[in-house]
Amino acid sequence: MAVIKPMVRSNICINAHPIGCAKDTLRQINYVKEKKSSRNITKAPKNVLVLGCSTGYGLASRIAAAFEYGADTIGVSFEKEATEKKAGTPGWYNNKQFDKSAAEAGLKSTTFNMDAFSDECRQAVIDEAKKWGVKFDLIVYSLASPVRTDPDTKVLYRSVIKAIGQEYKGAALDMMTGKLSDMVAPIAEGSDILNTIKVMGGEDWERWIDQLQAADVIADGCKTVAYSYIGPKLSHAIYRDGTIGTAKKDLEAHARSICKKLAEKNNGSAYVSENKGLITRSSSVIPIIALYLGCLFKVQKAAGTHEGCIEQMERLFAERLYTADGVVPTDEEGRIRIDDWELDPKIQAKIDEIMPKITEENVAELIDLEGVRHDFLNINGFDVEGVDYDADVTDMSSIEF
């Protein structure tokens, strides 16, 4: 038996709370169930594949598809499994609660705990779809991993968070203490850019579509969507114009290639959705990002336009992917913009006014420090409403409460 408290080191939480993860997954499920009554749903996916289904936007997408639109889902993620005495990763608990809730709702779901970059995983998904006797009409690509092994060459690639051309300096926020420090992102060198593109670009997404098409498990009219981020100008040097952003531009290029293939063979379409910036495991350790997000949260909450993962994905489905007239609204480059409320000029003007004024002495006043801290802990099942964090956890593999 043990009382589980968050173990945080340099904006990285290295443990998880089983009940907290399960309850937060239920919170998201309940949110889309409540939203369903206010949406006039006339179009909906029936069989959905979510690649990267265990946390963040991937989990929220699967929840929206299943519990608001009634879809049967197959999910893929690579998580550390819990045992009675050893904790699993947060996504393992989230997946377990999702499958439990789906079964209770009469929805079919299968979750593969596999490396989604592998052809073995692709074959397992294909076999499952054929066993179900279905074809996918929505494929969500939401993989976030620091490494990828190329299935053909077996070469392991590692992504990096680096600037391109010149060193990037920015303030880093310790979300637990509110302390500020200077952080330097080094300049990409050697094969850094290529390696990051190999991991976070669109090559693997297109490989999934190619193999699913070859196996004839893609339905007529299928949509596929991958997730990206543009962000404000102040973060472009480290994000949009850095190694990660370069990989995301590659993702957008592959979307056009995938769209052509789906249109020709399946009367389908492919999109990149530019989403809102949120606190994630990766964004927490990028210079300026956590501080910017704290400012963004405060400004958007005051304006009544703040959203978390589940609110973003519910709106993506209802107001972009499955509109009443069937038209998916995009920008001039064919991208879905669900970051519209974040990049609203009025919101950004307010942020530009606040950011230069922030010091360690006033940071708790000028940004939503409590909000970013909550979201940071929430990812790992902590600071979740209704959880007794002083209670002993007797079985680390159980999500029963």
What topology does this entry show?
Layout: E1 8-9, E2 12-13, H1 18-36, E3 47-51, H2 56-67, E4 72-77, H3 90-104, E5 109-113, H4 119-132, E6 136-141, E7 147-149, E8 156-158, E9 168-173, E10 180-185, H5 192-200, H6 203-214, E11 218-228, H7 243-266, E12 269-274, H8 289-303, H9 309-321, E13 336-337, H10 345-354, H11 363-366, H12 369-378
Parallel strand pairs: 3-4, 3-6, 4-5, 6-11, 11-12, 12-13
Antiparallel strand pairs: 1-2, 7-8, 9-10
Structural account:
- With 401 residues, the chain is of the alpha/beta class.
- It has a domain at 16-147 and 190-280 and 307-340: 3-Layer(aba) Sandwich (Rossmann fold).
- The protein is built from twelve helices and 13 strands.
- The strands form four sheets. It has a seven-stranded parallel β-sheet, sandwiched between helices. Strands 1-2 form a two-stranded antiparallel sheet. Strands 7-8 form a two-stranded antiparallel ribbon.
- α1 packs across α2, α2 (56-67) packs across α9 and α5 runs parallel beside α7.
- The longest helix has 24 residues, at 243-266.
- The radius of gyration is 21 Å and the shape is globular.
Largest sheet: 7 strands, parallel
Strand content: 15-25%
End-to-end separation in angstroms reads: 15 Å
Going by CATH, what is the homologous superfamily of the domain at 16-147 and 190-280 and 307-340? NAD(P)-binding Rossmann-like Domain
Which architecture of the domain at 16-147 and 190-280 and 307-340 does the CATH hierarchy give at level 2? 3-Layer(aba) Sandwich
Number of helices: 12
Total number of beta strands: 13
Mean pLDDT level: 95
The CATH topology of the domain at 16-147 and 190-280 and 307-340 turns out to be: Rossmann fold
The main sheet orders its strands as: 5-4-3-6-11-12-13
